[in-house]
Amino acid sequence: MSILVLGTVALDTVKTPYGKRIKMLGGSAAHFSMAARLFDCVHLVAIVGRDFPPRYIDFLRAKGIILDSLIRSGGKTFQWAGEYRGDLNTALTLSTELGVLMTFRPTVSEGERDIKNIFLANIDPELQEHLLSHMHSPGLVALDSMNYWINNKPKQLLRLLRKVDIYVANDEEARVLSGESNLMRAAKALRGRGAKMVLIKKGEHGVLFYSDKFILSLPAYPTEKVIDPTGAGDTFAGGFMGYLARVKKVSAATVKKALAYGTIAASFNVEGFGMEKTSRLTLATLNRRLTKFRKAVVF
Amino acid sequence: MSILVLGTVALDTVKTPYGKRIKMLGGSAAHFSMAARLFDCVHLVAIVGRDFPPRYIDFLRAKGIILDSLIRSGGKTFQWAGEYRGDLNTALTLSTELGVLMTFRPTVSEGERDIKNIFLANIDPELQEHLLSHMHSPGLVALDSMNYWINNKPKQLLRLLRKVDIYVANDEEARVLSGESNLMRAAKALRGRGAKMVLIKKGEHGVLFYSDKFILSLPAYPTEKVIDPTGAGDTFAGGFMGYLARVKKVSAATVKKALAYGTIAASFNVEGFGMEKTSRLTLATLNRRLTKFRKAVVF
To answer: Domain A2-297, what fold?
Structure first.
């Protein structure tokens, strides 16, 4: 089985107390892919501009990520610039330049339409719905979004919610979209709005997973080396979906392990700028930390 | 083995979106005892005033809590009034009347001085140190405090830190006392200041436990019924210390299970006002929820 991810490939400029990086490879689909590739073959659907460095294309390809549906268009690549201060929990967005994203119309090759595992990473919900409508037989579909779309295209997002298996949100997004401050209630409310399962990412506080059959909760991996949290959520999703795609089964046991893999993948992501750490990751390294994590939380 | 707890017994007036209670039985030592009694014999060291309702004395005694060192003095019982709004994560203190706490000088009976398990619940650190100095052979000593003492008696608190096994703090307190925003670093720094082990309570986000030998992390029990969180931290500590006192051993395995018992005890506490839920709790009920919790977090 393969995984198809729709999202952004971006040039990120990030400043944290540990340094600054200019126009690093970033974006939701790129971060997702870097973790998911450890488990399965990943097809990336996104758009970049003429200014996108060819070395980043080579880099993604060298990691085994399939770029058949990565469009290279005239115009500028999507750019994000942000800064983290203090405890690095909140990003201060300095600038966002949509560039080629403005004209993006995702297309997938005929062969890719048969892929069953689909991750709709954060991007305009209309593009997410457009892509999903072109897939032949979606098996496991997960959806991520952000406050911008919750505020600006809530109808489209809620319509899409009914078509996906797992809605992935951070705590703030879950609260805003559901109107509930308690996260368990927020998860239930989002279930009521149509998502079969709800995964709430709480950053340094771990994750909460809600479905009718089981509720799961995991803390984050305890780390003191937070260098740059950009992409942690997408990296989490990559580890999570990657494992589920590999085991081809959604049960309390597999979802638990998938959440743990996502947690561990994200813990590596935050320990370096951009994909510095996740791009060097192997499944063996991931498994070693998973064993440590299991010791820390199993009682 | 028994447990001795020094702290407050208070009359709490609490308002939450779910209602209001006037002059309920509360206080750090009372909440702690209500959970710890499920595991071991608890001796409560505190002071109340002439206005303290005799029915509360009967109530505590009926729960098996030993009140030989509960002083009844002239003056008014310590009173706290607070309100919780929105997501109930932060208490807004409306008034604090120290009353008899101002003149409190804890004493313990000769027999109680041999108790090995000691919990110094939140109260003036000088009183905590005074009590500890009178104990014959402390075995496992845990210390809780609050921002008020961190800000007003930091020297006394830091001196006491070197004499205890476990320093229990919430995330904000750990950050303020250590000067570190990352919680793992905060825990390490507090270890460096003398506490052998550090337990950081993160409220709805669970707990982090740090020692030289092992690091543990647990999420909170996922609940949507948060009625009144007053006393959740002390209830947590009661379940935690209670279990450790009962198994008479501090290892990664026993601390993990103790953290889980603390988590579960606290989850009952927040589901009702004051001790409505914890006072009716049995070990069997606690164990049933522990099994559910284990299913939710073990992978």
So the answer is: UDP-N-acetylmuramoyl-L-alanine:D-glutamate ligase (3.40.1190)
